[in-house]
């Protein structure tokens, strides 16, 4: 204990500040100007002071919501991966880019949160509230992102390869004989959705199916969004639908049935995420599985590294998803009457 106290004293002397100021910086408390905080951080680095995380700490996990199984599963597994390091995950469901997300972040920082995980939150938006980054930088709180980095920042991100996921979906349906393949996509300006649309279009072009803009419909990540998008796609003659989430895929199946069509006999549907109940739907959903376990493990490893003062390479690591074939996709059968 005495050795740790001496080290803090040395930091205070090097930085020319009080012990209380060093303590506030170490615990990422408010009441320290950004300039002073930078001076103390520089002194910590020059003296080789290693922050200890053995005493525990709060990690805020900001996510779009827990009604989507993929986000609740990710949040749970991130918490489990952090627990052995004495860190406790506090999950904060909030609409990405909304006031509630910013309020959650302020509250977490005021409570002394030692780190933040943005789990498909405002980090996925092209237009995000810059105050989010200002709050983090002012307190020098480490953070990592899932499914996209903040534009213009130097954040670390761990993401599913959304473009590749869309390509896998298109190629799976193409092998089954489908050529009018539509996409029920997420909203524009959402980076995972934009990447999936780009991957879809690249795969369609590579397979010689051309650019068919009417076969991409943007909607919300919901059952209702998937239903609306699929109604438009069926009106344009789609025989298969690539949905940008499992919930959208369930909406696509509902739209097909309400149009008097069977899945997969008349229309094939493939989802994205592979939530825990998708093998029990009717029919069991063919989907693209996100590597949740690997994402959670790497998020925890990266954040613990940052909290320990180790160098963690900036950038975005892409994790490869995989197709899980079940009963909602099948061979294309041309049911048009002979001429």
From TrEMBL:
<keyword id="KW-0238">DNA-binding</keyword>
<dbReference type="InterPro" id="IPR028082">
    <property type="entry name" value="Peripla_BP_I"/>
</dbReference>
<dbReference type="InterPro" id="IPR000843">
    <property type="entry name" value="HTH_LacI"/>
</dbReference>
<dbReference type="Pfam" id="PF00356">
    <property type="entry name" value="LacI"/>
</dbReference>
<feature type="domain" description="HTH lacI-type">
    <location>
        <begin position="6"/>
        <end position="60"/>
    </location>
</feature>
<dbReference type="GO" id="GO:0003700">
    <property type="term" value="F:DNA-binding transcription factor activity"/>
</dbReference>
<keyword id="KW-0805">Transcription regulation</keyword>
<protein>
    <submittedName>
        <fullName>LacI family transcriptional regulator</fullName>
    </submittedName>
</protein>
<keyword id="KW-0804">Transcription</keyword>
<dbReference type="GO" id="GO:0000976">
    <property type="term" value="F:transcription cis-regulatory region binding"/>
</dbReference>
<dbReference type="Pfam" id="PF13377">
    <property type="entry name" value="Peripla_BP_3"/>
</dbReference>
<dbReference type="InterPro" id="IPR010982">
    <property type="entry name" value="Lambda_DNA-bd_dom_sf"/>
</dbReference>
<dbReference type="InterPro" id="IPR046335">
    <property type="entry name" value="LacI/GalR-like_sensor"/>
</dbReference>
């Amino acid at each position: 204990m005495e050795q740790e106290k001496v080290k803090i004293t040395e930091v205070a002397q090097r930085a020319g500040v009080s012990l209380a100021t060093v303590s506030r910086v170490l615990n990422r408390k408010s009441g320290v100007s950004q300039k002073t905080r930078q001076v103390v951080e520089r002194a910590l680095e020059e003296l080789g002071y290693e922050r200890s995380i053995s005493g525990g700490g709060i990690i805020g996990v900001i996510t779009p919501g827990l009604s989507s199984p993929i986000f609740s599963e990710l949040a749970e597994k991130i918490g489990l991966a952090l627990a052995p390091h004495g860190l406790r995950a506090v999950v904060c469901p909030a609409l990405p880019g909304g006031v509630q997300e910013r309020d959650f972040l302020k509250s977490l920082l005021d409570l002394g949160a030692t780190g933040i995980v943005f789990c498909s939150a405002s980090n996925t938006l092209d237009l995000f509230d810059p105050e989010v980054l200002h709050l983090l930088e002012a307190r020098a709180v480490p953070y990592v992102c899932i499914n996209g980095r903040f534009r213009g920042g130097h954040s670390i991100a761990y993401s599913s390869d959304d473009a590749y996921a869309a390509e896998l979906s298109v190629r799976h349906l193409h092998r089954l004989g489908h050529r009018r393949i539509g996409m029920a996509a997420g909203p524009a300006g959402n980076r995972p959705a934009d990447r999936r649309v780009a991957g879809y279009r690249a795969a369609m072009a590579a397979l010689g199916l051309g650019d068919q803009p009417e076969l991409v419909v943007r909607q919300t990540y919901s059952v209702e969004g998937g239903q609306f998008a699929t109604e438009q796609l069926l009106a344009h003659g789609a025989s298969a639908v690539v949905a940008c989430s499992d919930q959208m895929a369930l909406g696509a199946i509902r739209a097909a049935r309400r149009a008097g069509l069977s899945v997969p006999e008349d229309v094939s549907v493939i989802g994205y995420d592979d939530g825990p109940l998708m093998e029990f739907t009717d029919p069991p959903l063919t989907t693209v599985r996100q590597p949740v376990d690997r994402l959670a493990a790497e998020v925890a490893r990266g954040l613990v590294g940052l909290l320990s003062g180790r160098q963690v390479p900036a950038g975005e690591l892409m994790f490869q998803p995989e197709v899980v074939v079940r009963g909602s996709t099948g061979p294309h059968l041309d049911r048009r009457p002979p001429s």
